[in-house]
Amino acid sequence: MNKVILMGRLTRDPEVRYTQTNNTLVASFSLAVNRRFVRQGEERQADFINIVAWGKQGEFCSKYFKKGQQVGVIGRIQTRSWDDDQGQKHYATEVVAEEVYFADSKRDGATNGNGNFENTFGNEIAEASSEFEMSSTDDLPF
Questions:
Q1: How many structural domains does the chain have?
Q2: pLDDT band for position 25 (50/70/90)?
Q3: DSSP class per residue in 60-82
Q4: Which of 17, 45, 47, 102 has a C-alpha 20 to 30 A away from that of 33?
């Protein structure tokens, strides 16, 4: 199974290009993803992960994602290699985006493209937790 879930900030605006063969849109960008732990006395480290989004996903990213925005990406890791004009082999590892989301809070001004605020991860958590709210501890059986 090859599945990646990332949340981070865009290091630059998405770059758009089109394939030569069938003119398919490809958006590429990089996410700065904070590492989970911080060593004592050091600043938090981040990994910079290259993302590519094809077709409609790429079009969405190019329209609505901007440098500094926090976003969520679900996709798969892909590796590729090629030889340059001098015959030297190059390798690239990137995440191919299958789903993309806004992850900024409403205060930070993230919109879903229709002018509506959206925080997909937070909304799912809020909806799930509201199902289990209890009005009083007197109702507990223990």
A1: 1
A2: very high
A3: HHHHH--TT-EEEEEEEEEEEEE
A4: 17
